Amino acid sequence: MYSTRFQPLMSGHREMKRRVFFVSDRTGITVETLGQSLLTQFPGFEFATRTLPFVTNQAAAYSAAETIRAATREDGLPPLVFSTLTDPATQYIIASSGEHVFDLFGTFIEPLEGALGRESSHTAGRMHGIGDILAYERRLTALNFTLSHDDGLGTRDLHEAEIVLVGVSRCGKTPTCLYLSMHYSLKAGNYPLTDDDFEQIKLPKILESSRRVLYGLTILPEQLSRIRSQRRPEGGYSTLAQCQSEVARAEQLFRKEGIPYLDTTTVSIEEIAATIVRDKGLR
Question: In angstroms, what CA-CA distances link 49 with 74, 79, 109, 119, 276?
Fold first, then answer.
């Protein structure tokens, strides 16, 4: 349920508010990604999004359509609806639910059918289903490896990693590794640099066998201090002076050892991962 009452127009410099629905016959990941990408092109709006997944039959479609109509009645303004439904019957029901329904698959399926000279399968969830069992198993293997090699754990077989992220604590190593394993099926490990590693500004011995797959992450000390303060506000761990010292020495180590590195301060996890894959020539 939404507690915010939406108005068609907001005056002055206040953001205009608009409700958005993502409708899918599977998890909704695809329609969310496409829809959110399109919405980023419209600054000045505050979008309240809701995903309606697993709309796999007409009953579910009618239920989703009523949810959309209820939002129209409540807001006095039709919501934006993005859909990746593949069944024409369910898509017709959703299309009749409001004025602004965007059929993201339908926009491209018909031209593709013409280009390929063949009708599409209209099969739901092919992108996220287990269509290739070997690829699925590889992703699970990569994820298990990443979970067991997080934050310097399981260093004995770290040489098997396809990418190892290095950096100070709380600079984004763990979420980036998880993204790399989930979306790129890469065995990703990470190692946190500590004061002990900075004594000689030298690559820790445990990382020598992984030198070719190392990639450094850094961050502005001010941002690092804010992040650490949320986790452990007491003690010297989160002070600006400590963060400045650690970041400076980490970057010095990266330069000395020839390790490529990226400032993560204003970069999303998705962008960090894509940059690493590009820079290291990973597949």
Answer: 15, 10, 25, 33, 30
For the chain, what is the domain count? 2
User: Which residue from 120, 89, 94, 93 is spatially nearest to 23, judged by alpha carbons?
Assistant: 94
> Is-contact 124 54, C-beta < 8 A?
no
**Residue 24 falls within a domain, yes or no?**
yes
The SS3 of residue 64 is: helix
- Strand, helix or coil at 46? strand
> What CATH code is carried by the domain that includes residue 92?
3.40.50
> Which of 93-107, 150-164, 175-189 has the least mean pLDDT?
150-164
Give the Cβ contact number of residue 283 at 10 Å.
Answer: 7
Return the SS3 of 60.
helix
Residue 33 parent element (H or E): helix 29-39
Predicted local distance difference test score (pLDDT) of residue 179? 94
- How sure is the predictor about 11, in pLDDT bands with cuts at 50, 70 and 90? very low
Residues 153 and 272 in one domain: yes
Please tell me whether residue 50 adopts helix, strand or coil conformation. strand
- Helix (H), strand (E), coil (C) string for 107-175: HHHHHHHHHHCCCCCCCCCCCCCCCCHHHHHHHHHHHHHHHHCHHHCCHHHHHHCCEEEEEECCCCHHH
Structural domain that includes position 66? 16-116
Check: CB of residue 35 under 8 Å from CB of residue 82. yes
For the segment 187-232, what is each residue's pLDDT rounded down to a tens digit? 999 999 999 899 888 899 999 999 999 999 999 999 999 999 998 8
